[in-house]
Amino acid sequence: MVAACSLLIAVVSPGLARGADGPGPVCGHQPTEYEAPPPGAVIVDPGVDSDLSAKTAANPAGTTFWLKPGTHTLGGDEYGQVAPKDGDVYLGAPGAVVDGRGVNRAAFTQQASKVELHGLTIRGFAALQDQGVVNHDSGNGWLIENTTIEDNAGAGLMAGAGQVVRHSCLRDNGQYGLNAYQAGDGITGLVLEGNEITGNNTGDWETKVPGCGCSGGAKFWAVNGADIRGNWVHGNHGAGLWADTNNNDFLVEDNLFEANDAEALFYEISYNLVLRGNTFRGNTLVQGRAFAARGDNFPVATVYLSESGGEPRVPARTSAVDITGNTFEDNWAGITLWENADRFCNSPANTSSGYCTKTAPKSSCAAGKIEKSPVYDDCRWKTQRVEIHGNTFRFDAGRIGCTSLCGRMALLSNYGTFPDWSPYKGTVVEDAITFHQGNRWHDNSYAGPWAFVVHDTSKTVDAAGWQAKPYSQDECSSFTGGTAGC
């Protein structure tokens, strides 16, 4: 058994950049393994406009291209681009840059499969809203490794099924570092490992288009199966990672989330998540201060679960949301579990219009039908089966410059009012999320003046009230910074 464990330690994530606190810098660390072209590679010269595009078009599928050091350009209009064929491989010598010069919309396009990019820097492309620069058309099976994608408009990178992004830098892109969306059935089997995702949403899209939900270090839409491990997600102008609408089966582990303006992780109308072994430090300060300044008492969060929970009928590696073994240090707040009583399939309050839950057909979630079993339950995205245990929460209001509305955990909903045909009016969902949906904190360690918002925004209790009936939360937890346990 000892030998087997040692072998696992040796082979897991060999390329991750890690420091004493976990994942570390990738941006600015140019790989050197492609200093010379491998045998048989097609050599691409810088300074020859469209050479990369032309040589890609002229060679068969499965060709390896080696880009010499220098700046490579793709043509003088917005449609200059590279259209890879299946299995094409692009290797960048140290100093090889593909530059859109603010003219070209996208760098690598079309839907070839199993394309690989290694060692490139890709910058200066003018992608449109919600579109991307690399893998613009969401081809499947792409591998992006040791590559820097920076200073582009739109999304630096799109995703397809089976895509792996490893040891790469997604930095200072205008809307997203990564936009994981694919038309049709959505993306399966996405891997993000050992990357640095930083400074994205330079265009401040949530201000530009209020309520768009269209920004983040990485945004995921209807992704089924994602492994997100060993990344440094920091300094993004909005959410760090945002999973929005019918995502499922996410494993988020061993990441370092630091100084993201809004939520470090936002998991929204989605299912089945394991969040373990991560460090969250200094997140949500910008958003928290903005809420406090305008007197908005909604409990903003470092980890925000909105209408998301465990669902055994949706196949995944877990049937719960399991949040364990994480360290939270001097963030604006902790974890919020929220369920909007007015947001359900076919409700006008569902901003993911056109989408229904994975447990009910859209046609069943209508007036005259929705109030009957089983669709009464199945037409709601439920915040349920969430277990928060074995975590450490440390908070010092003075260090983050907070005087009010910080240092809070929350378990709550709103009083249902809308639409007229909703069967979830009144306190139905407030009571359900608080008492009946299997949401449980236990065996955690707290340090600092934590408060707990429970049932609705009007109710805030201290640790004793949180542990007492009727809430009975955080059994066997320590509120003095000590070791948890009964």
Count of helix runs: 8
The shape, in one word, is globular
Radius of gyration: 23 Å
- Alpha-carbon distance between the two ends: 31 Å
Nearest-integer average pLDDT: 94
Structural class: mainly beta
Helical residue percent? 10-25%
The level 1 CATH classification is Mainly Beta
CATH architecture verdict: 3 Solenoid
- Counted beta strands: 38
Summarize the structure.
The chain has eight helices and 38 strands.
Please, could you describe this protein's structure?
- The chain is mostly beta strands.
- It is built from eight helices and 38 strands.
- It has a 13-stranded parallel beta sheet with strand order 3-4-6-8-11-14-17-20-23-26-29-32-35, covered by helices on one side.
- The relative contact order is 0.07.
- Mean pLDDT is about 95; it is low at about 1-20.
- It comes from Amycolatopsis vancoresmycina DSM 44592.
- This is Lipoprotein.
- Keywords: Lipoprotein, Signal.
Topology (elements, then pairings):
Blueprint: H1 2-11, E1 18-19, E2 22-23, E3 42-44, H2 51-58, E4 64-67, E5 70-72, E6 89-92, E7 96-99, E8 116-118, E9 121-123, E10 132-134, E11 143-145, E12 148-150, E13 155-158, E14 164-166, E15 169-171, E16 176-180, E17 187-193, E18 196-198, H3 205-208, E19 216-220, E20 223-229, E21 232-234, E22 241-244, E23 248-253, E24 256-258, E25 265-268, E26 271-276, E27 279-281, H4 285-293, E28 303-306, E29 321-324, E30 327-329, E31 335-339, H5 375-378, E32 386-389, E33 392-394, H6 397-400, E34 408-413, H7 428-436, E35 440-442, E36 445-447, E37 451-455, E38 460-461, H8 463-467
Parallel strand pairs: 3-4, 4-6, 5-7, 6-8, 7-9, 8-11, 9-12, 10-13, 11-14, 12-15, 13-16, 14-17, 15-18, 16-19, 17-20, 18-21, 19-22, 20-23, 21-24, 22-25, 23-26, 24-27, 25-28, 26-29, 27-30, 28-31, 29-32, 30-33, 31-34, 32-35, 33-36, 34-37
Antiparallel strand pairs: 1-2, 37-38
